[in-house]
Amino acid sequence: MLFVIVAPLALAVVALAIPSNRRRPVALLAGALVHAAGIAVLFGAPPPARAGAWLAFDPLAKVALLTTTALFVAAAVYAQGYLARRDDRDNRIFVGGLLFLLSAMTTVALSQHLGLSWVAIEATTLASAPLIYFNHNARSLEATWKYLLICSLGIALALLGTFFLALSGAGPGGPRSLLLEDLLAAGPSLSRPWVRAAFVFLLVGYGTKMGLAPLHSWKPDAYGEAPGLLGALLAGGLTNFAFLAIVRVFQVTRAAGDEAFARDALVGLGLLSIGLAAVFVVGQRDFKRMLAYSSVEHMGILALGVGLGGAAAGGAFFHSMNNGLTKGVLFLTAGNIHRAFGAKTTDEVRGAARRLPVSGPLFLAGFLAITGSPPFSPFFSEFAILNGAFGEGRFVVGGLFLALLAVIFVGMATTVLAVVQGDPGDAPPVPNSGDSWLTAAPPFALMALVLLLGLFLPEGLRDLFGAAARLVGGRWE
Amino acid sequence: MASFVDLVFILVVVIDLFLLASSRLGAAIRTVAIQGALLAALPLLLVGEGHHLGHALLLAGGALAIKGAFIPWLMFRAIREASIRREMEPIVGFVPSMVLGGVGVALAFAFSSRLPLPSAGAHAFLVPTALSTVWAGLLLVVTRKKAVSQVLGFLVLENGVYVFGLLLSDVMPVMVEAGVLLDLFAAVFVMGIVMFHINREFSSLDTEKLSALKD
Predict the structure, then answer these.
(1) Cβ contact, residue pair A148, B194, below 8 Å
(2) What is residue A157's three-state secondary structure?
(3) Which of A88, B96, B132, B214 makes an SS bond possible with B108, Cβ 3.0 to 4.6 Å?
(4) What are A360-380's pLDDT values in tens digits?
(5) Which of A152, A168, A279 to mutate to test the interface with B (most CBs of B within 10 A)?
(6) With 80 as the cut, is the pLDDT of residue A308 above it?
């Protein structure tokens, strides 16, 4: 297990040492492939669960790592084409940072120790902040500053929450440990007020990182200004790990007997996120910012699914995978469109389908998928969550969810259709920015994966989502 | 000895209030350094029968080096290069923010008397000091416009978290505590780099200028 953490880290060091700007991205690809191979080996021969281990390959880690490793391989292939075109920029920090990010994210997934999880999440913030500043202009600097400051605040509050949790088990006879298995075993003997305080602080802290409203304010700026490649990895990858950390804390809160409160908090924040995204998506002219609000929406859907429980929890884990892969398609193609037009608002961009015969239609397909149109996989996971809401008798929540999804569909459609349709006409063409194999094939492959998961969900994955859902008291239907 | 520990906790809270009312950045940085140094002494003062002296020494040394010396030095460099002296127009004025800070201190004392402490040996002022320092730090970050002030607020917030962490020094493994210091260091270091770039890009460390991105 240590291998999938150390290998990307070692390659990050190698990438920092490589002097050639052109050869360096190869280290990224190598890191992605080695990581994917390591994950495959872990799936083939699962490591035996040992008591007291700080790292374990549990169902939550499996879901998150499976999504991210697929996304990262696609992003690494894309990076070969993207960074070759951006030879004007030194990519030393960018490549090294991405590999460091991969290593930190893997640590978050595997960590069974909540202190270690916190350190790893802080490491993801530090690894990703300099990457947002890749374009070295005033706007990306502003985005970086907001990201760093807001996420650091969140992470500081999460640390306080972690301390509260440690304190809840510090009494006589308590586990005196932050290992997940010890906390779960201690269950109701944990001090209830401290567990509740810990859940609130950790939800706020990691919720900031995940981008749940009202703690999402860094997200439109960061995703709007970062290269599409990074947006894909943040929106599709990193947020899933913050979600995973929240799920782990929820497990503890549930074991300690404060389940109802935690569920209400998750449902409330979830609906608030979806509602806020609906407000800001309508009339959004900047298509990258629109994607950021879509990310806020889908984080809300994940929180909602886990909060509702029952069949919705299984749907939430399925949705975390679907959202991750579809966000990859959307951000990578949005990056291509941004580059081909040198602009990212509907005032200047139109006719993307004509100028980019692959990326344009893929962007449209990605939009259809993320808003829950059949036969793409997000339709099935959102349907499972809706079904779960009604199954649990939460008709108001389910109805609200459905209504907000409809508003978001219409709002996003206006922007996306304006970008894709029409004639590029007088928009000045940018040289060397058309679709190439390296920049068009990765989003295409991810899109195919999203379609495939919608048409046919393998038995193994069903079992995996079921196992993950059972950890939070849900099930897979 | 006990009264000396009381004094340290009270000083830490007074420093929180002073920072909320202070407009001179140089003085604010110096005060944060003093707060850091006071906090570094705490693990040694609070050492009880359950603690390891070596561990406490290590923690105190690390805190003193980073909170008391290295970070203030970094901040002084930042204001010297940007040649700024004062926080001119905070979003919430100095007096209102100090009043808010005072309310926070009162609430922190009221709350902590109700929260059950699993380990009985803890000092009575520890939890309220930690919570009011966290609150003061949050206020500073949210209400100030200069990047330097915001980073100082973050440091105060981290100081509060650190005080709380002392409650757990016999429960938590050393690694996590080392992680705390390391992360504080790394975060401020990265923030320092960003500040340097903000200064170069806008010739000012005023985050008001960072307002191109909005909906």
Answers:
(1) yes
(2) helix
(3) B132
(4) 999 999 999 999 998 899 999
(5) A152
(6) yes
